[in-house]
Structure formats: C-alpha cells, structure tokens
Amino acid sequence: MSPTAPAPAPTLEQLRPSQIAAHPANPRTDVGDVTELADSIRSVGILEPLIVAPATDKAGDPVPGKYLLIAGHRRLAAARAVKLKAVPAIVRHALAGDPAAQLQAMLVENLQRVDLTPIEEGTAYQALLEFPGWTQAKISAATGRSRATVRSRVGMAALPKSARTRIHTGQITLEEASELVRYAGDPAALAKLEKAAGTGHWTWQLAQVRSDTAKAKAITKHRATLTETHPGVPVLEGLPQGWRWSDDGPRMLADLGLDATAHADCPGHALVIEATASYRSGRTVYTAEAVPVCTTPAAHGEPDTDPAALAAAAARAEQKATEAALFEGLALASALRRDHLAGCVAAGTGAHALALAAARAVVTSNRRGHGHALAVHLLGLPEDSDTAAVESALDALDLASLVVFADLLRSETSERDLTERLYAWGPQSWARGYLARLTEVYGWAWTFGEQAVIDTLAAETAEVEAAALAAEEAADDIADHREDVDCPDPGRCVDPDHYAVA
Questions:
Q1: Are the C-beta atoms of residues 287 and 221 closer than 8 Å to each other?
Q2: Which ranges in 183-306 belong to alpha helices (H)?
Q3: Domain positions in the chain
Q4: What is the pLDDT of residues 277-317, one digit of tens each?
Q5: CATH architecture label of 11-198
Q6: Cβ contacts of residue 102 below 8 Å, gap of 6+?
Q7: pTM given for the model
C-alpha cells in the first residue's frame, strides 16, 4: 500500500471465532463471569459487533483470515461458550501492523465502557509510553483522561505487586491508591500505608506519615540553613535518649551554665535540630530550631555521675520521651477528630438519633404531672396515653419535629408558669427566653389577654423604676446638700446641726 494512500474504511464482516485471537497487549486481564451474557447471546445473538484489526506477522505482512481482537473480549468469550459459528465484527484495516494505534483503540474502547481497573489502565498507559513519541500528555489527549489521572494510573501500575493486586480487586480505594503513589519513593512510608489501606486505621496512618514527612522536610531545610550560617559546626538530628544525664552524651549549654557565643570555640560545640509540631485542620506544620549543646561536658569540669543516679535519670528520660510521643499522637488525633466532627456538623450526621435521644430524655424526666400531659398534648395523643405510647410516637417524628418537641417539652415549666404566674410575663422573668422563642421562632402572636398582662406588668415596672429613680435623685440631692456648708435652708438637711450655717 502506498504511504500516501488513504487507509481502507472499516468493514462489517461475519467471522468465525477461531479467526479472532486475543490481543497480546489487551489491557483487560480478566473477562469475568460471562454466564449471563452467554445466555443472552444464545437467545438473541450478538447485537453489537466486535472490533478487530487484521493480524500481521513479525515482518508486518498481513496474515490472511486472521484478526486481533480490539474490543469485545467478553462477547467473544460468551460466543465461544455457546459455540456460535460466526460473530459480527467491524474490521479496522487502518490498525493493521500498528501496535501503538491498536493499544490506543483498546484503551479508548474499554475506558468508554468503564471496563478497566486502575491497574489495567495504568499498565496500558505504561505500554503506550514505551512507543516512540508517546508521552503522558499525548495519552491524555488520546484517551480523554486528565493528565493527573494518567500520571496517577501509571504510578499505580509501578507499585509493589501486593498493592497492585489489592487495587485491582478493589480492596484499596482509588483515593488510597493515589496516596500510595505519592509515597512510592519512601519504602518505609509506603509499607505503613499499604498495611493500613482498606482498614479503619487508614486516616490515622496517612496523617502520621504526612506528619513524619513534614518533620523530615523541616529538619532537612533547617539543616541546610545551619550549614550556611554555622559552617564547620556539627549538626545532630535529634537527641540520644537520656542525653541530658549522660556523661559522654551532649548537654544543653544552659545546663552547663555556658553561653553559646563563648562556647563556640569548644571542640565539643554542636547544634541539635528540634522540630515543634502544630496541627492545622489535620495538617502538621513543623517549626525547626537549633539548640546549642556540648558533646564534651567533662571538658568543663562536669562531675562524674553515680551509675544509679544515671540509670534513674535515663529511666525518667525514657518515660518523658514515651509521654511526649503519646501526647504528639493525641494532638494529631485531635486534629483529625475535629475535622471529622466538622464534617458531621456539615452533613448533620446522627442528627435524628441525637434528637430522638434528647426527646426521650425529656420525656423520661417528665413522666408524671404536667410534663407528661404536655408531651401527650404536643403529640396529639389521647389524654390517658402512657410513657410507652409517647416514646412510640416519637419514633415516627422526623428530625425537625423531634427538635421542636424536645425544646417545647424542656420548656414545660415556663409554659405552665405563663398560665399560673402573672410575673412570668414580666421583662425580667425567668421565662423570657421562652417568651422570645414563642414569637421569634414559633411565630406566636400575643392574644388580647396575654398583651393585657404584658402591658400591665410593663406599666408596673415603669412605676417602680420611676420611683427608684426619684429616690436615687433625692438621695443624691441630700448628699450634695450636706456638702454645702453655706446651705440657706438647714431644714432640708438630715442633720442641720452638723453644719456651720452662715
């Protein structure tokens, strides 16, 4: 065929299943159970043709009557199961002898059907990358997948076999698999994450790995800075356990009563990098600092340490280190827990169960008397209904109704007092919160009877306040008058003999 000649158009042909061979680069590793598909084909035949490409030999020459399967692996397997003599197939002649184009066609066909697992997809992408001119960007354009997806799938295909198997079978989620790819270059972190994937410990382990990574980055960055600012000074990463009490270990200069500047010339002068963690929305942020130490404290006349005292101090140091690690874990867990609870607030997680429990608790605390009577009334039950009937009725309420019921029954005392006590309506009443909710939340408009009480109490309150103000003004007037030694009207004074009146 001439290089410039147009490629032959696809043709629809009836082929024997024996003429069609599985493609060696087929992304799919398992066609799965085709029993139901076989039953359908036995009844109505193959409704959608297979897609094939003419087979070629190693020299690239056509092999007459032979084809490579591009799409339809399950249909072909089912057709063979029911022993069909022929299957409909679209022959794409343009794909003959072009392995890269064939693989691309298989990828696009399977991705459109959502037939590939992430590992199968990544393996196919990697196979395409081995052809000249193929890049992740080109694969993205050819398949319609985003570059990030292509990059992630290729990374998944490069993970250890144990992880690939679990991703392929769905034991590891795509989100978890993406994190495994992120830490593929850190064998220790990868091993921890792979072990935790698919378990309830995943969130914690991922946060811990991120925390460790952030700490390592902070230390590495600070070490580079110290190398520039303190050339020639040894930089220690972390402190040996019990170092503060060890004769041959480093000591903080403050413990030795030494100044960092004066100590700079000591052969034992060194710096220790300490990283302090803070947790922000589940993310660990480390701040690194350098602590000046002396690795030769004996050179400064540090006395020998009693072995027993040294052992006891080392034990204390170990205990403190253990406690510090535990508290660090609690701090990280707290950040994760609060993020989770924030999600619960946003989603209303457990709202109905909590409201139902609150409503039942209020019912339980008001089993006798007016509380029970109000509960029965609010639920529209017969007056002789017992507590069991009330609790049963609560089960049928939705979340909003439960919230309202719990609030109203909890306010039972205020509701009763509004009938039995006039001063419950006063501006300083213990029931003022309930009064406000009646109008602002529940939309109740005061009746003439209620408004009359409110107005009467308001007037009484105004009179009391006016009288109190008058008494206060009179007291102030007397106090001012007493201070006036030239008072022209001693009769207004409480004790006129006390003053020298002119």
A1: no
A2: 187-196, 202-229, 253-256, 260-263
A3: 11-198, 208-320, 351-448, 449-502
A4: 777 665 678 888 888 888 777 777 665 556 676 677 667 76
A5: Orthogonal Bundle (1.10)
A6: 23, 25, 53, 68, 70, 95
A7: 0.56
